[in-house]
Amino acid sequence: MNAAYQRLTARAARLAALGEAQSILHWDASTMMPRGGGAARGEQLAAMAGLSHEMMTAPEVAEDLAAAEAAGEWASANLDLMRRAHRRATALPTALVEATTRANAACEKVWRDAKAASDFALVRPFLEEVLHLQRETAQAYAAATGLSPYDALMEGYQPGVTAAEVEPVFTAYEAWLREALPRAEELQARRGAPTPLPGPFPVAAQRELCRRLSLRVGLEAEHSRLDESLHPFCGGTPTDVRITTFYSEADPAKALLGVLHETGHALYERGLPAAHARQPVGESAGMAAHESQSLIVEMQACRSDAFLTFLGRELHAAFGGDPAPYAAGNLGKLWRRVSRGFIRVDADEMTYPAHVILRFRLERAMIGGDLAVADLPGAWADGLHALLDITPPDDARSCLQDIHWHDGAFGYFPSYTLGAMAAAQLMKAARKAEPELDKALEQGDLSPLLRFLRANVHAHGARLGFQDLLRAATGKPLDPADFTEHLTSRYL
Question: pTM surpassing 0.90?
Answer without folding.
Answer: yes
